[in-house]
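Page header: ASSEMBLY MODEL / three components / 916 residues total.
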Amino acid sequence: MKQLLSFVRKEFYHILRDKTTILILLLMPIIQIILFGFALTTEVKDTRVAVLIPQSDEITTKLVERIHASSYFDVVNTIQSSYEIQKTFRDSQAKLVLVFENDFAAKLKHDGIAHIQLIADATDPNAATSFTFYVSNIIASYQQDMIGTMKNPYQITPEVKMLYNPQMIGAFNFVPGVLGMILILICAMMTSIAIVREKEKGTMEILLVSPMRPIYTILAKITPYFVLSCINFLTIIILSVFVLKVPIAGSFFTLVIISMLYIFVALALGLLISTLTESQVAAMLISGMALMIPVMLLSGMIFPIENMPLPLQIFSNVIPARWYISAVKLVMIQGLGFSAIIKEMLVLSFMAITLIVISLKKFKVRLE
Amino acid sequence: MVKCIDLHKSYGQTIALQGVSFEVNAGEIFGIIGPDGAGKTTLFRILTTLILANQGSATVNGFDVVKDYREIRKCVGYMPGRFSLYQDLTVEENLEFFATVFNTTVEENYELIKDIYQQIEPFKKRRAGKLSGGMKQKLALSCALIHKPTVLFLDEPTTGVDPVSRKEFWGMLKKLKAQGITILVSTPYMDEASLCDRIALIQKGKFLSIDTPLNIVNQYKNQLWAVRSMNMSKLLNDLRSNKSFENCFAFGDSHHVSIENKKLEIKTLEEYLLKCGHTDIEITEIQPTIEDCFMEISKDTTL
Amino acid sequence: MDNVITATNLTKQFGHFTAVDQISFEVERGEIFGFLGANGAGKTTAMRMLCGLSKPTSGIGTVAGFDIHTQTEKVKKNIGYMSQKFSLYDDLKVWENIELFGGIYGMNDQDIKVKTDKLMYELNFEKERNMLVASLPLGFKQKLAFSVAIFHQPQVVFLDEPTGGVDPVTRRMFWEMIYKAAENGITVFVTTHYMDEAEYCNRVSIMVDGRIEALDSPKNLKAHYSAKNMDEVFQKLARKSQRKE
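Prediction written out in full:
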């Protein structure tokens, strides 16, 4: 036990004395969250709006004026037919198109109800959510004002339609994605590099020629990165809840459980990579190529899995991050309980056990 | 203490060891002497249980290097060829770490390393990577000794180290030997051979000879002359072009010429060199050094 | 006198630490100059300054007639360099290494080709021409590395412990190559830990604590310090060292 503790302490010295690396490791989640969070801006000042009004009347004019008067919107264009809507978006003339119903004022007066369709360009889902929300508010407030002047209760119903990104992949989705990526990066890549470094520097020779049990070496290497991962996990959660306002809808405890499981999978992967490589550069390249890229592209973090070609969908099953991200989405965003993520838990547990068994078997008590 | 029988090892196409057998007695300094690539490191790695031989067997302290590798790892000290300590840990931290790795404490075996460690103790708060070559070597030796090993394996501890530090290092080994530790040491420096009790000359994975340095020198079968003149470069060419010698090599301030016994008189050689136009000719019969012996014995296997 | 290297009060400081302390010496054309010293005495730092890799803190130095402060590029063009650690690319073939270094020093392809053929013949390397350097024995590599270092006919070649770990026979063949290069007018500046090799040099300087403590021919040094070989001379001088790190 004393051996292990002293080994763990040594690992912490290594990490803490390498100022550049530790700084990168601690800042990376923050920077990624900020990049993803604010590059997909929620600021909707002066959003360009186009309107399609079949018959102009008093109410439509007033509504358009009111929207234009708001600091959020600029009504830049009036289009004549629904055929032009696509073109308007494609030429980036507007981010939002308001389509008024035929005989808008007349319908409102006779039936007491009229429809406006809000068609939004949702390539930037955060922004789209915000500005459709604002427009709906403006319409609602106009409606309120009208109720005061007219006898009958009128209702203007806005219908929202998102173009290009109907699932609204974005804000809520990148937090699980960043979690999945950071954890695999730190656990797998850093662990493998830490072990391989001992081989490269020749210190592994001395460790092997000592009564130190290999399992201690492994545990000691894993511990600091486990701690680092937990810190990063907390950083990401805190940032997402307090800065990005993405709340944890489900139970925090469940989220922690699934994350621990995922961390184990990642650590085991790192161990496996370290047994297969002889140099730090090789370990880095393998973790980079074999882990980072699939995690980014195939885990559902950037591209929805449902939209992938079938072979890639099948392949995505072996990527741990895919299951983790899906579980985090279910718990953190949809607020579902433990029973909803049983499948993900099982898959990840299976992966963890398999990988740990393989890497322990592969871990050599000799140099070759 | 150490016993090897017919060890073979190859890495793919490259043959590192081809049939090495020897025994090391308790309490002796056994030197393995040969150039880089001769197989010294491979041999040490087999004995320290780091790699497996393709063929042959070996025991250290009575334990088999394959079956009882755990036992061996408890009782040997090993200092690999390159500096293998943690550069980002301080002197003190390195020593303490290796003490716990070997299930002991610095205090417990301080007596053994005291002489060596005291020389670097003033710098104990310094990171190992910032030490000079000689000090790194002392720290590495302290770390290898911290668990009071019965057998110490030193793989080229003096390579790249200046002559003064090398002398100091061998002084330390003598003291360790006095404490009863068996030492296997490899070196490419032939002049260090005389400091060992027994030596093995190794070349291309084969032992050329195993004996005490004195016996190896005595077995040198030819006569050896040291030849000097005003123009050493021309002298070498002239000696080389004379076919009556076995071989001729530059050796510090003189050239060593080996002659089959009684085949040639010193006077004859002197006359020949005078004829070639040399002045200040000086020819003396000398005792061969280990290096002379190594070159003589390895003649058949060199390129 | 035709001096290829001159150093006048050359000094290099790192912070408060004076690695090289006002060294002055000259090396003549075609001379084999041994540059000895204990680990940490300042040899490497001095050699780096002469090769134009590190700027002196003060003092003047010229190599091949060029100032090591201001004309480092010209200095580099006129020197060859070989060390035990880095010499050739292991993953390139023998001829590829030669071509590469010939190209780096701006030789034209025709010259490279002719000289490569000649070199392969002289070294008896024709068989190995197409082999990867990694697969050559160490002795071969060192010989090849030296040949590559002087391939572009530099005025000076700097050798940093060129024979470390090489077997005794190859070590001597290596020195014979050095002699030959010197006869062809290439000045050789060499560091070594083998004291018998110091005897092969025309003149030897011994550095202790950043200063040159002795500089003379091996014969004079031995006479002066009443020592029977260079090892004794070295031991006597280097033991004076006050530097403890």
